[in-house]
């Protein structure tokens, strides 16, 4: 799995649909340097020259547009993951776990990869690695925390989601299948809220979270009597979800258990019966 992801990174994960890096335009010369560093780093890794590989990954990272510490960003998330794997292959557990922690803080929420990757097997008994794993498991469910509900102007708080079965519906008002599915979520919230179901609509509008887009979402929510928070999908999170987590179909629906970990992901319009079956399954698990 790691090798495939590394190659994917080298040939395009860093770049937006127009070939630029997200958030800032870079000169073609800089893009070529980054690509060359990544390809050379991968080559050194295959030759088991892990220290040289990491040095090149670090050089590539230095050329990326600056971001705040811990900002969601697919490029840095994947680079830190590869650096962490290289440290693990050198038997440098503290450095490996620190790099993986940085990867998770930037949005590397592939907890299943962290657990299955044979490169990281020697880390499994370390308590600090388990802490990193826990952060990765909770990454998806926490991505809506702190975002503002356009219907009530209140922020989604972590305590609102605690010990709840959670659905996060990634949708947009421009998407006919998304609009058709919204009444199903309204019905599910009405029927199962008392048993511990929470729903958040994570809304992607093509022009971004502008005032006009917020008003359009608010109007649609009121028209449909939406009874759960509708929050706006910011560009950094959109780029992370599409670039690193493969969210390219609308709607995409995530289901989380009461422990906050991801249990199911569905793409495209679903029948009410399919959605309800997932909710019943998760509510039955205490």
Beta-strand residue fraction: 5-15%
The CATH architecture of the largest domain: Alpha Horseshoe
Q: How many domains?
A: 2
Terminal Cα span: 33 Å
Spatially, the strands of the biggest sheet line up as: 3-2-1-4-5
Structure, explained:
- With 286 residues, the chain is an alpha/beta fold.
- It has two domains: 2-141, Serine Threonine Protein Phosphatase 5, Tetratricopeptide repeat, CATH 1.25.40; 158-283, Glutaredoxin, CATH 3.40.30.10.
- The protein has twelve helices and five strands.
- The protein has helices spanning 2-13, 28-46, 50-62, 74-89, 93-105, 111-116, 127-142, 158-161, 176-192, 211-223, 235-243, 272-283, and strands at 165-171, 197-203, 230-232, 252-256, 262-267.
- The protein has a five-stranded mixed β-sheet.
- Strand 1, helix 9 and strand 2 form a beta-alpha-beta unit.
- Helix 1 packs antiparallel against helix 4, helix 2 runs antiparallel to helix 3 (50-62) and helix 4 (74-89) packs antiparallel against helix 5.
- The radius of gyration is 20 Å and the shape is globular.
- It starts with a helix and ends with a helix.
Give a quick precis of the structure.
α10 (211-223) links the parallel β2 and β3. This protein has helices at residues 2-13, 28-46, 50-62, 74-89, 93-105, 111-116, 127-142, 158-161, 176-192, 211-223, 235-243, 272-283, and strands at 165-171, 197-203, 230-232, 252-256, 262-267.
Summarize the topology.
Layout: H1 2-13, H2 28-46, H3 50-62, H4 74-89, H5 93-105, H6 111-116, H7 127-142, H8 158-161, E1 165-171, H9 176-192, E2 197-203, H10 211-223, E3 230-232, H11 235-243, E4 252-256, E5 262-267, H12 272-283
Parallel strand pairs: 1-2, 2-3
Antiparallel strand pairs: 1-4, 4-5
Helix pairs in contact: 1-2, 1-4, 2-3, 3-4, 4-5, 5-7, 9-12
